[in-house]
Amino acid sequence: MTILIKQPEFVGTEAGERKVYEEEKVLVLDAGLVVPHTTSFGQTFRLTFCLYNDFKTGIMMQKSVEIFYQINHIKQTYDFVQRMRNEYSKLNRVEMSIWECCELLNEVVDESDPDLDEPEIVHLLQTAEAIRKDYPNEDWLHLTGLIHDLGKVLLLPSFGELPQWAVVGDTFPVGCAFDQSNVHHKYFTENPDYYNPAYNTKYGVYSEGCGLENVMMSWGHDDHMYLVAMENKSTLPSAALFIIRYHSFYALNKEDVESPKWLHLFSKYDLYSKSKVRVDVEKVKPYYLSLIKKYFPLKLRW
C-alpha cells in the first residue's frame, strides 16, 4: 500500500541524505530529519520498551499489559470497528475547544502504557515541548505533539466511557489476516475474525494496492482524533494528520509507505519523552493557544 505525503522542507539539507555524526550523537534520516540521541529534557531515547526500577513491579506491569492486549485482540473485530466509526463520526457528543479537551485528559491514565503513570496532559506537554526544543521552526509538529492523544477522552463518561481495550494500545488493520508482527499476536486466535474466511486472508475485504488510507484500523483514540481533525476542517498539513491517525500503528512496515519519516521521528518523542520533569503549563499555554487558533476553529464538534 502506498501513501504519498508532502513533506515540509528542511532548509540546508539535501533530501535522501543519511549520515551519522558521531561527534554530535545525532542521526540524520531521509529528507534531513534529525533524530537526537537524547531529548531536550536530557532523557535518553531508550532502545528497550521500558525500564523498571523494581523487578517485581515490572513483571506485574508486563503481565497487566499482556492481559490488556489479550482482551483487545479478542474484541477488536471488523464489525466492532465499523460500529464505532459509524457512531463516533457523528461528532455529536460535546462541543469544546482543543485546550478544553487537553484539560479533560487530567482525568485519564492509559493502562496499556507501563511507562506512563501520570495524567495524559503531562505526557502531551512533555512530547510537544521536547519536539519544540529540538525543532523550533516546525510549529505544526509541536501542536501535533500536544493533540495526538486527545482521542483518549473516549474513556470519559461524556464520550461513552469506552473500556481501555477500545481506546488505547497498539493499533492494527482489521478486515484482513492479523499480521505476525502485531504485539501478542497469539491472542488473535480467540478473535472471531481469525476464522472468518471473509476476513482471514492476506487482503481480506480489501484489494491489493488499495492504499493504507482505505484500510480500517482497530478502533481507538488515534482514529477518533483523526476524525475530529478532518470533520472540523483542521488546516494541519497531511503529515500531521498521518501522525495522528497512525501513531499507535507500531507494526507499520515503513517500506510499504512512501513517506512515514515524520511519523518515525514523532514516535521517538511520543515513546521516550516521558519523565518526572513537569512542564510549566501556564508558561507554555499562550504559545499552544496561538497554534490552536492557527490550525483549528475556536470550538470543535467531538
Automatic annotation (TrEMBL):
This protein's pathway: Polyol metabolism; myo-inositol degradation into D-glucuronate; D-glucuronate from myo-inositol: step 1/1
Binding-site residues for Fe cation, renumbered to this chain: H123, H148, D149, H221, H247, D270
Bilayer-crossing regions: none
GO molecular function (one): inositol oxygenase activity
Positions contributing to substrate binding: R46, D110, E111, S112, K152, G169, D170, H247, S248
Domain of life, source organism: Eukaryota
Location(s) in or outside the cell: Cytoplasm
GO biological process, one term: inositol catabolic process
Family annotation (InterPro entries): Inositol_oxygenase
Catalytic activity: myo-inositol + O2 = D-glucuronate + H2O + H(+)
Essential cofactor(s): Fe cation
Keyword DNA damage in annotation: no
GO cellular component: cytoplasm
Keyword set includes Oxidoreductase: yes
Top EC group: oxidoreductase
Annotated cofactor note: Binds 2 iron ions per subunit.
Pfam families to which the protein is assigned, alphabetical: MIOX
UniProt keyword list: Ascorbate biosynthesis, Cytoplasm, Iron, Metal-binding, Oxidoreductase
The family this protein is said to belong to: Belongs to the myo-inositol oxygenase family.
Protein name: Inositol oxygenase
